[in-house]
Amino acid sequence: MYSTYDGAKRRAQTVAAVLQGAELPTPLHVCQRALALAGGYRDWDHLRRTLAKGVSRQAQLDGFLRRLVFALPDQAVGPAYRWAETVLSDLEDRMRGKPTSDRETLDWYTRVYEFVSAIGVIHRSRTPLLTPGSGAGQRLRQDMVLGLCIGPAKPRFDPESYVLTFEGSLEELMPEDVGHRNFGREFERLCAAGIFEWNGEAQILRLNPPPVDQVRAHIAKCRGFDAEYWREAA
Predict the structure, then answer these.
(1) 10 Å Cβ neighbour count for 143?
(2) This prediction's pTM
(3) Calpha distance 50→58 (Å, rounded)
(4) Whether 208 contacts 155, CB under 8 Å
(5) Which domains are present in the chain?
């Protein structure tokens, strides 16, 4: 995780950037303290003094995640936990000579995943044409939207608008739905409602979000549950 003072500083800056990307701007000193406690130090000053003058000493990795979740504010636990879990997994894979996660995968899991998941959940539960009882084809329409949000494709996420942009053919993006006999009709209904925007020539599909305040509220609720779950699991 880190073994030098400069390495610890870089890790703390990364955690601050992860939380900033998760719409949780957190003072750097809070991230430094959390990384110090997680690594087995009393506080950041203890870490600084221990690793002063070029001293190298590996952070205590056993129990790192457990200590981290108790050192952070509730809302920060989920994003920081996912980041630390991925980094620790990569360290273990590296020691075993296995391939490690690329930067895109790490960024996706720590910065984007929960937004895409929340967009799918709110669409399913609140968006007309997708909620149960919204008429014929509802299940297929819901499957199209949720399949994008929970499927293997990793869309670009616009943190300003919350629009998700997917690249590829419809056969690639919706392999389980595109063969349905009513796919064309229901896909067009989603486009007409402004849920989808499809550029067939460029093969770009945009999924517009439900109201952003609803997405944020869902994420905040889930982060509270995450903090409670991981602290109890620790």
Answers:
(1) 17
(2) 0.88
(3) 11
(4) no
(5) 5-106 (no CATH), 128-209 (1.10.10.10)
